[in-house]
Specification:
about 425 residues, Spore Coat Polysaccharide Biosynthesis Protein SpsA, Chain A, alpha/beta, 8-stranded mixed sheet
């Protein structure tokens, strides 16, 4: 019994210290996103970059027309961008509808290499060999809606010298259900206290799978090759390892559809964690080695982000231990001595509860519905613990889990709202 007590004691000491160090790091970085700097207007930079807009689509007949329509409404010269839809292993009318709405459609059928990463790799190869030449490739999902100023904002960042730029991921259906509201809050927080401060500090932002642009010469130089279940994270880490980074365009907005049900959310987030675990197994050690060997802060920050799911698990375990100890004083955890008093942990939780709403208020997303969202948001956060564990245990499962998109919202609907 004494041995078990010792193991529990020293394990919790290590977990608490790891949580504190990682939490302090992320909090410290996030503070730099509180005050937004005044940006130069996009109109100051004449539209000169030519874009290949690529939409990856698998059985998306209900939403594909809306994203194409939103791209055709860009306040950017039409001669400087083309829209390409990858009808990837489709069995519905995605290709037909995309053509009707004015996109160039490329049909891909490959039962072995399934998933968005493979589809993008294939499409990029097609673009390289086209007679018409492009400066930049921009990637979108079929369920997206794109704000009219997106290309102008991206053109600005590219003209400033950035080679890879991620846009602002917003939600087109934040109040459809409690899970869409929780998702939306998570993305709004990430935009303001993860992406924006890293851009200000000269670190690498993270690619989000959609709404990003890549200089075509960069793609040709290092290759895409991101074909795991989280191709965006994989390419972000690949860039960091090759001494490149992702910039941020806070005013280039893309509206993304969030899963409507908890079951859909669970499946999607399991896929995210499987891909995250896969990337961590391949990039965590090399990035840490590079960061210490070369004093490379970008590599260090990316490596710390790969550690983030482990932090989720640690926080969940500590929380469960504290609850058990409080409710059942004679539990195996009653002899535990925490690095910080229990009261400090409760203060930590309370501060986090208020920190999020303050960030949302700063982002001008606050409303009565968001208050309701924050009441259920802790439940959403706690579900990350079993999801992360399951994702890491099944990281070798490469089967792509498609999320069905059914919310037929147009860009006109959003603008009117």
């Amino acid at each position: 019994m004494h041995f078990i007590d010792s193991v529990l004691y020293y394990s919790t000491q290590f977990i608490q210290i790891a949580i504190f160090i990682a939490g302090s790091y992320f909090l410290g970085v996030s503070i730099f996103g509180w005050i937004k700097r005044k940006e130069e207007p996009a109109e100051k930079y004449p539209p000169i970059k030519k874009f290949a807009l690529v939409i990856a689509a698998h059985n998306e007949e209900k939403v594909i027309g809306h994203v194409i329509d939103s791209l055709l409404r860009q306040n950017y010269p039409k001669i400087l961008y083309n829209i390409f839809v990858i009808a990837d292993n489709c069995t519905d009318k995605t290709a037909k509808i995309a053509r009707v709405h004015g996109a160039s459609v490329y049909v891909r059928t490959n039962s072995e290499q399934r998933g968005k990463g493979f589809a993008l790799d294939w499409m990029f190869s097609q673009i390289y060999t086209m007679e018409e030449k492009f400066d930049v490739i921009s990637v979108f999902d079929a369920d997206n809606l794109v704000a009219a100023n997106f290309l102008m904002e991206m053109n600005k960042q590219l003209c400033k010298g950035h080679k890879v730029v991620q846009g602002y991921i917003d939600s087109k259906n934040p109040y459809d259900s409690w899970i869409t509201c929780a998702y939306s809050i998570a993305f709004w927080l990430a935009n303001r206290i993860f992406q924006l401060p890293r851009y200000y500090l000269g670190l690498s932002c993270g690619l989000c799978g959609t709404g990003f642009c890549i200089d075509i010469e960069i793609l040709k130089k290092i290759g895409w090759g991101a074909t795991c279940l989280t191709e965006d994270l994989e390419f972000t880490m690949k860039l960091a390892y090759n001494n490149m980074k992702v910039a941020w365009a806070h005013n280039a907005v893309v509206y993304d559809e969030k899963p409507l049900t908890f079951k859909q959310s669970w499946r999607q987030r399991i896929r995210w964690m499987q891909g995250h675990a896969d990337c961590a197994s391949r990039y965590l050690k090399p990035l840490l080695k590079k960061s210490f060997k070369e004093g490379n802060l970008i590599s260090f920050d990316c490596a710390i982000y790969l550690f983030q799911p482990i932090r989720f698990i640690f926080i969940g375990l500590i929380t469960i231990m504290m609850w058990i100890q409080t409710i059942f004083p004679q539990s195996p955890f009653y002899t535990l001595k925490y690095v910080f008093p229990t009261e400090v942990w409760y203060i930590f939780v309370i501060l986090q509860f208020f920190y999020g709403p303050l960030v949302i208020l700063a982002e001008k997303k606050f409303s009565l519905k968001v208050i309701w969202g924050f009441l259920v948001y802790p439940i959403y956060c706690l579900t990350w613990v079993p999801i992360t564990i399951q994702g890491f245990l099944s990281k070798d499962n490469k089967n792509w889990s498609h999320t069905a998109h059914t919310r037929e919202i147009s860009i006109n609907d959003l603008e009117e709202a």
